């Protein structure tokens, strides 16, 4: 079973999408090969739920980060070898013998085959040399074994028609499965080197995955991976304290913090480096968020009704007994303040009873937090807004308690909106 995050969650956190601006996928996509891109997309689409598998992948990324290796293949060489190894048509000596030698030497198909074979041989020699740097990487043993069976590889220089026919038959027929293994190995190296380079350059760390029964999440330094100078915050959750109730003024950083949390959890389940320090987490069954829920004109849904349906969907999943993480940013902001207060209070109280799940819930209706203070399993935190004279300043540092900041009118006055209208 794989970790589940639905389309809404992926869009809220801007996780996937090769061509989406500032997506987390794009952040890590320094890939050189098309096969590497496919592998990276697969990792993003299928996060893991087995802690051993997660920790093994994390250890692999850490190994490549420590080795500081450079991907040794050009994208054109890899593409040429891929094209050659998947060429259609007959290969090898029997097909060649069916042609007269003089005609064959000027045959366009033959020239294509020759160039593809030469590119593939160059790729294999480069691979064999590069493997000397991977002494402590267990998967390299399989690749070494395959390449060691090609004893003629290092002796290939000028190729006659007959040697081309022989090598072509070896690589594209007898050893086709082994060639596929080596290509997959090159794609793996592409991803491991590219992702670990990003981790080193951006100061990311590696999380430790724990069994679901431990039911904890902990980090001392969480930040958003796309921000070069993001403020780090500590977050801890467990079954006795499974809800973080977050308050703060608009622009104080609530949404960014919530996205940072969701992204770290998702990347952690992928075994990827995270923008968090000392992070350990119990594996979850999935992640759901409600941050930018749109209305639906085709269905006739208002923004508020779309929010209600989203909460209902999450409630269905939570009540089924799954171990989930849920992020609600500004619940029921599509309705009036009184209804939003009542609904946020009731929904938060109901969700909090599911101690096997973790919840991060934000609101700017601070009275809800005050009404929830009798619940022992809720953590109350806020992001402060400070005033330098009449100008607001945001620390982005998580603080214990419930905010008392009410600076909305100050911001409106600073922008001189009323003066504009009166003039």
UniProtKB/TrEMBL annotation:
<dbReference type="InterPro" id="IPR027417">
    <property type="entry name" value="P-loop_NTPase"/>
</dbReference>
<keyword id="KW-0547">Nucleotide-binding</keyword>
<dbReference type="Pfam" id="PF05192">
    <property type="entry name" value="MutS_III"/>
</dbReference>
<dbReference type="InterPro" id="IPR045076">
    <property type="entry name" value="MutS"/>
</dbReference>
<keyword id="KW-0238">DNA-binding</keyword>
<dbReference type="GO" id="GO:0005829">
    <property type="term" value="C:cytosol"/>
</dbReference>
<dbReference type="InterPro" id="IPR036187">
    <property type="entry name" value="DNA_mismatch_repair_MutS_sf"/>
</dbReference>
<dbReference type="GO" id="GO:0140664">
    <property type="term" value="F:ATP-dependent DNA damage sensor activity"/>
</dbReference>
<dbReference type="GO" id="GO:0006298">
    <property type="term" value="P:mismatch repair"/>
</dbReference>
<dbReference type="InterPro" id="IPR007696">
    <property type="entry name" value="DNA_mismatch_repair_MutS_core"/>
</dbReference>
<protein>
    <submittedName>
        <fullName>DNA mismatch repair protein</fullName>
    </submittedName>
</protein>
<dbReference type="InterPro" id="IPR000432">
    <property type="entry name" value="DNA_mismatch_repair_MutS_C"/>
</dbReference>
<dbReference type="Pfam" id="PF00488">
    <property type="entry name" value="MutS_V"/>
</dbReference>
<dbReference type="GO" id="GO:0005524">
    <property type="term" value="F:ATP binding"/>
</dbReference>
<dbReference type="GO" id="GO:0030983">
    <property type="term" value="F:mismatched DNA binding"/>
</dbReference>
<feature type="domain" description="DNA mismatch repair proteins mutS family">
    <location>
        <begin position="241"/>
        <end position="419"/>
    </location>
</feature>
<keyword id="KW-0067">ATP-binding</keyword>
């Amino acid at each position: 079973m794989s970790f589940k995050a639905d389309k809404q969650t992926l869009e809220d956190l801007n996780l996937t999408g090769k061509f989406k601006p500032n997506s987390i996928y794009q952040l890590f996509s320094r890939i050189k090969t098309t096969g590497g891109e496919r592998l990276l997309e697969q990792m993003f689409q299928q996060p893991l739920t087995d802690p051993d598998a997660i920790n093994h992948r994390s250890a692999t990324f850490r190994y490549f980060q420590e080795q500081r290796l450079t991907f040794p293949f050009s994208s054109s060489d890899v593409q040429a070898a891929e094209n050659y190894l998947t060429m259609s048509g007959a290969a090898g000596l029997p097909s060649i013998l069916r042609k007269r030698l003089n005609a064959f030497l000027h045959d366009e198909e033959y020239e294509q085959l020759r160039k593809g074979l030469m590119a593939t041989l160059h790729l294999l020699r480069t691979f064999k040399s590069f493997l000397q740097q991977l002494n402590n990487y267990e998967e390299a043993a399989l690749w070494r074994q395959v390449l060691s069976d090609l004893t003629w590889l290092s002796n290939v220089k000028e190729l006659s028609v007959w040697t081309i026919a022989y090598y072509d038959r070896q690589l594209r027929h007898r050893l086709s499965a082994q060639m596929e293994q080596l290509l997959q190995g090159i794609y793996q190296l592409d991803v491991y080197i590219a992702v670990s380079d990003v981790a080193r350059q951006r100061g990311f760390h590696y999380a430790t995955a724990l069994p679901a029964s431990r039911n904890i999440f902990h980090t001392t330094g969480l930040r958003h991976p796309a921000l070069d100078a993001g403020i780090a915050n500590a977050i801890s959750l467990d079954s006795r304290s499974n809800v973080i109730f977050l308050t703060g003024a608009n622009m104080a950083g609530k949404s960014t913090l919530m996205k940072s949390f969701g992204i770290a959890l998702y990347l952690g389940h992928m075994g990827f480096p995270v923008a968090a320090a000392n992070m350990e987490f119990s594996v979850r069954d999935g992640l759901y968020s409600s941050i930018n829920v749109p209305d639906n004109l085709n269905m006739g849904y208002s923004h508020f009704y779309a929010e209600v349906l989203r909460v209902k969907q999450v409630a269905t999943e939570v009540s089924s007994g799954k171990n989930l993480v849920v992020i609600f940013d500004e619940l029921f902001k599509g309705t009036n303040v009184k209804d939003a207060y009542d609904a946020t209070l009731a929904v938060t109280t109901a969700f909090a009873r599911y101690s096997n799940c973790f919840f991060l819930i934000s609101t700017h209706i601070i009275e809800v937090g005050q009404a929830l203070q009798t619940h022992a399993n809720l953590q109350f935190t806020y992001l402060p807004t400070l005033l330098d004279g009449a100008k607001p300043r945001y620390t982005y540092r998580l603080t214990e308690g419930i905010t008392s900041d009410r600076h909305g009118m100050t911001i409106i006055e600073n922008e001189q909106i009323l003066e504009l209208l009166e003039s």
